Amino acid sequence: MMGAGRLVAGGFRMRSVFRGLGWVWVGALGWGVLGEDIRFPKDAGVIDVSKPPYSAKGDGKADDTEAIQQALLEHPNQNRIIYLPNGTYLISNPLHWPPSPDPEKSQRATILQGQSREGTVIRIADHSTAFGAGTRGASVLWMGGAPAWRDRNAVRNLTIDTGEGNLGATGITLMANRQGGLRDVTIRAGGRRQGIAGIDLSHNDSIGPCLIKNVSVEGFDYGLKAAYPQYSATLEHVAFSGQRVASIRNTGQTLNIRDFTAINTNSVPAIVSADNIGFVTLLDAKIEGSPARRPMAAIQNRGLLFIRNLTGTGYPILIENRTVTNLNAEGPDIDLFLSHPRVAQFNAPREPMNLPVEETPEVPWDPLEKWASPLAYGGLPNDDIDDSAAIQKAIDSGATTVYLPNGSWMIMSPVEIRGAVRRIIGCEAAIRVRGLGSKAAFRLVDGSEPVVVIERLAAESNVSPLLEQASSRRMVISSCSNVAFQGTGRGDLFIEDVSSASEWVLNGLKVWARQWDIERDGAKIVNNGGTLWVLGLTATQPGTLIKTQGGGKTELMGALAVSSGGTKSDPMFSIQESSASLICSELAFRGNPFRVIINETRGGIPRALVRGEAGVDGLVTIRAGGAALPLYAGFDGPGAVPPPPLQGRTNQPVQITR
Asked: How many whole angstroms from its chain centre is CA 424?
């Protein structure tokens, strides 16, 4: 592989495309969790649509539209899990997320959950008039519209099938921001694979940030359509096949993608980035096509593009790049491609740091007899009484999974996660913290399980930390909202689909993050002597996104800084006697971007990349009113070269074949 690789405008590194730990190949395309069988206890507050008063049949014959829709409508803005046991649920009209008279509470905090990806199927009845050719994109699932208050919306562990003759169907019109998205989902066009789109991210300008993980799309004109520059989406372990126009079409969005597969026998493009605002970061991709009557490129780019580790067959050109560099790449293997030259202020390699990437650890979904709840120990949600002791007793019961039924739980004393527990699951529950000051509500301490997953919780405030890593064990924070964190231990940390309004100080930790949203006025992340790898960061308001100090190492693979209001006296990024490689863009829709883009100090010499100063505006690309960095190299190492001249950008980036 090393000898066959090709480096375009950067460094050289080959890695395996598929390295999922705990994943298996499911169906024709897509990754799934081994032994997937998602069940919840009867007292978890989960709404089972097969039970009265809804009584959906799931037999593939009866029309279950009304039953599922009624379950959705009766639980608006409640963080409820609307649960579908295994079965085939026939529908004849689109299913809509529940509205509310208050626009801030409408079409949000709703989770549609199947028992298993292969076993739970929502299928359109054949030749349904609601999804005919004239409907132009009627969705099986419509998750809401603007404005951008639609957090905690999700679809999990099920299959969407558009049936026969439904030519105007779209699989999912996705709406989620801050925290939410699609996980472990298959979307397939029935019949001749016709339909408009598998996933629609283009229907309004308020979608994202969100996470799309372990998702496959089969058929449709487009596998995924994205538009508008305001927000971003992070995709990991995604597979597309059989599209008729393009697997992904992007107009303006920031897309951060890792482990991407596109297999199209008619050789349509895998990715079309159609304008000069869109920003795509693509890691570990495999593209397959077949000879077509009209030769075309696998990836067609007019915007900002970063690619690392791409393998492609069946296309005469892998990348057609119509940007300032005007550089194409034939393949079949591309180790590194940049649409625009890399930026540096000191001597630096021409490639990113390539920090080791680890998959988010999985723990088994335990049988229900191994679950425990504070309900059994006197705890009760929504009563405004301290539940700390009851939660601690559930943790100390010997159970491996502790669940908090839907509702609001009060914690007034720190709770230690210890013993045999390997999963704390909130059933989309809320946590109310009182009287703890700087102490965390949940402290992960040493125990018998090497990995502990904390998932599906929402803190009602960030006055006190919700979580503390105080152990040597691996900690996974997944699908959680408004998380304030502190780290006093040395165990690895994994962050996945998490929103926050607090500063994260990471002291010496190894951290891997996917889809991380931080919305606060002030510093967002401090990497103090640790190792930080991020796929998809979104940050709003003034304040430094990431400060790397104390010899730390940071690799940011796709980020969006939304410059929304406030005076920006701090730099966007700070690198102080440390190492960082950064892929990032900025949206300044109010005309007040960061003035200082990067502050870097190396060997006692400080330098600043300042917008508006001589030469800088010729070196840094401007996107949507803000700065864009397809790659900033803020580190030293083998193959380091001098920084580009400040006189202006060169149109001849480095191209090396090995």
From this structure: 21
User: What is the distance between the alpha carbons of residues 207 and 226, in angstroms, rounded to a whole number?
Assistant: 9
Structure tokens at 415: 């709770």
Reading the block at residue 593, the tokens are 């971007």
Distance CA 107, CA 125 (A): 25
Calpha distance 449→31 (Å, rounded): 25
Q: Is the peptide bond before 381 cis (omega within 30 degrees of 0)?
A: no
Supply the pLDDT for residue 32: 44
Residues 112 and 386: their CA atoms lie apart, in Å, by: 30
State residue 230's pLDDT score. Answer: 87
Q: Which among 579, 576, 524, 581 is positioned nearest to 556, based on CA atoms?
A: 581
Q: Which residues pair with 37 in a beta bridge?
A: none
Q: Three-state SS string across 159-204, please? A: EEECCCCCCCEEEEECCCCCCEEEEEEEEECCCCCCCCEEEEECCC
655 class by beta-carbon count within 10 Å (0-12 exposed, 13-18 middle, 19+ buried):
middle
Please compute Rg for the chain using Cα positions: 24
d(CA 403, CA 372): 6
The amino acid present at 333, given as its one-letter code, is: D
- The structure tokens listed for 600 are 């870097």
75 close to 82: Cβ distance less than 8 angstroms: yes
Residue 658, beta-bridge partner list: none
How far is it, in rounded angstroms, from Cα 621 to Cα 630?
A: 9
Residue by residue, what is the 3-state secondary structure of 543-554? CCCEEEECCCEE
Check: CB of residue 599 under 8 Å from CB of residue 575: yes
Distance CA 225, CA 312 (A): 22
Please tell me the predicted confidence (pLDDT) of residue 648.
42
State residue 293's pLDDT score.
60
What is the dihedral angle through the alpha carbons of 253, 258, 263, 267, rounded to the nearest 10 degrees?
Answer: 40
pLDDT of residue 111: 97
Parts of the chain belonging to CATH 2.160.20.10? 6-338
- Per the CB < 8 A criterion, the answer to whether 131 and 168 are in contact is yes
Tell me the DSSP string of 423-486: EEEEEEEEEEE-S-TTS-SEEEEEES-SEEEEEEEEES--SS-SEEE-SSSEEEEEEEBS--EE
pLDDT given for residue 624 in this prediction: 80
Counting Cβ atoms within 10 Å, is residue 386 exposed (0-12), middle (13-18) or buried (19+)?
Answer: middle
Residue 300: strand pairing partners: 272, 320
Measured in degrees and rounded to the nearest 5, phi and psi for residue 185 equal: -130, 140
Give the pLDDT confidence of 137-164 residue by residue, as tens digits.
799 999 998 877 788 999 999 999 999 9
Q: How far is the C-alpha of 285 from the C-alpha of 312, rounded, in Å?
A: 8
In angstroms, the first-to-last Cα distance of the chain is 10
Report the DSSP beta bridge partners of residue 103. Answer: none
**How far apart, in whole angstroms, are the C-alpha atoms of residue 469 and residue 486?**
7
| DSSP state string for 258-320 | EEEEEEETT---SEEE-SSS-EEEEEEEEEEE---SS--EEEEESSEEEEEEEEEES-SEEEE
Residue 305 is which amino acid? L
pLDDT digits (tens, 9 = 90+) for 308-355: 999 999 898 899 988 876 778 887 899 999 998 889 999 999 999 999
Cα 426 from Cα 406, distance rounded (Å): 7
Residue numbers in the chain where pLDDT is lower than 70:
1-35, 292-294, 325, 614-619, 646-658
Phi-psi region of 228 (alpha: psi -120 to 50; beta: other; left: phi over 0): left
Q: What is the CATH number of domain 6-338?
A: 2.160.20.10
- Per DSSP, what are the bridge partners of residue 555? 533, 581
DSSP assignment of 337-366 equals EESS--B-SSSB-SS-------PPP-----
